[in-house]
Amino acid sequence: MPNESTFDPAIQTENIAFSPDEMAACGKCGRNNAPGRPSCIYCGERLADGVEHLADVRAAEDWEPAFNVIITGGESSASDIAKAASKYGVGLPFARLAESEDASATVAELSGRHISGLVVPDTLLAVEWPHVRLSSIEFGVGQLRFTDRNTGKITESNTADIALVVVGMLFNSRVDTLEKRKRGAEAKRLDESAADEFEPVVDIYIAGDARGFRVTCSGFDFRCLGDEMTMFAAKNITLLVEHLRRALPHTKFVECYREVRPLLENVWPTTIRREPQGFLRAGLGKKGFGRSEISSNAAQFDRFSRTQFHIL
Fold first, then answer.
1. Planar angle of CA 300, 302, 307, nearest 5 degrees
2. Residues 70-107: tens digit of each pLDDT
3. Which of 81, 165, 176, 212 has the highest local Cβ count within 10 Å?
4. Bridge partner residues of 252 (DSSP)
């Protein structure tokens, strides 16, 4: 797992890796795990996660529709999740369960422990339904105009109707490996390359519209910033958030994704996809079987973002 030494400010706007202090050591094998995992990724031993698990319920598989138990606050001594939810005023996932009845029962049990929560089904989070990507925002007096990047459709909204702004970061990591394989022997690694992409993102929700708008660095016209616009897209995103804050004094802003991300991993883990690349050649004399491992937090952030809308 990456640590602080992997952060290079020359190529990254912020360090999204877990710090050594955040890692959870397995009591059985001693190896470090990402915070929030229920069990060791290496040996399967149960890890202490700060919250005692409740009823004997079935967690949903990744592929099946589920019901998310969301914690929105609680006593400071109740759990790390409840403390973070109270501190930042957000909803954080406690469990993703296969049955609605189990999810409702879990919320009731949490209430008995002075932890507040609710059930948000996957159908409301709708990660398969992308946000509307914006190409521009026009700031008017008491009004904003949003332009759809794909269709050019313009949506006007009174500033009083803008309910929520969620700020975060999308990342994609790709590791390509070339291995030499022999029957009856361990694979020998011949070559490996890694590439990381990070992109700040801003989601904007109008009251009554759970889909939401999304601003990313690519494809967005930052001329709405006027003379403040810079040559650096990440800086422009920061300036855009400041403009939105001034224009939307009564809107809720959520800017804690980086801080709470470790608490999301247990229920909404980073997506990892492995792809075989077949027989490849790489450089002089290097040939073998290639494979790629691709990691992304896109689905995790979508769930986090839309959850904040549904708990308003």
1. 100
2. 999 987 666 889 999 999 999 999 999 999 999 999 99
3. 81
4. 164
